[in-house]
Hints:
Blueprint: H1 4-11, E1 24-29, E2 36-44, E3 47-56, H2 59-72, H3 77-80, H4 85-91, H5 100-121
Antiparallel strand pairs: 1-2, 2-3
The structure holds FE2/S2 (inorganic) cluster.
Amino acid sequence: MYNDRVLEVFANPKNVGEIENASGVGTIGNASCGDIMRVYILVENDVIIDAKFKTFGCAAAIATASVATDMLIGKTIEEALQIKNADVVAYLGGLPPQKIHCSVLAEEAIQAAVADYRSKQK
Ligand code: FES
């Protein structure tokens, strides 16, 4: 069902875990399958210097979260909001149609983590 790149990233995911003193944390549930994605970001001078994730999700959720958190590191908060699930899916060389919703989890968890970060700045 998955291409080789997805399987490779799934087998060796990056950025798995938590950030203890995270600047922002976003947790999103997937209504269609009940799975959960949590993204942690560490921000310094408006730049994301570290990002990690934890998920109760399928191989597609793990692979897309690995790629999405990698994309996050080094980006400004504004740039982070531009990361779309389509970019992650393209990087992975595509996902089966029934697995596209899994890639939305990472995008939405990133947005939730940024919103959490911003709410703490006020
Ligand atoms: Fe739930 Fe993929 S089936 S995240």
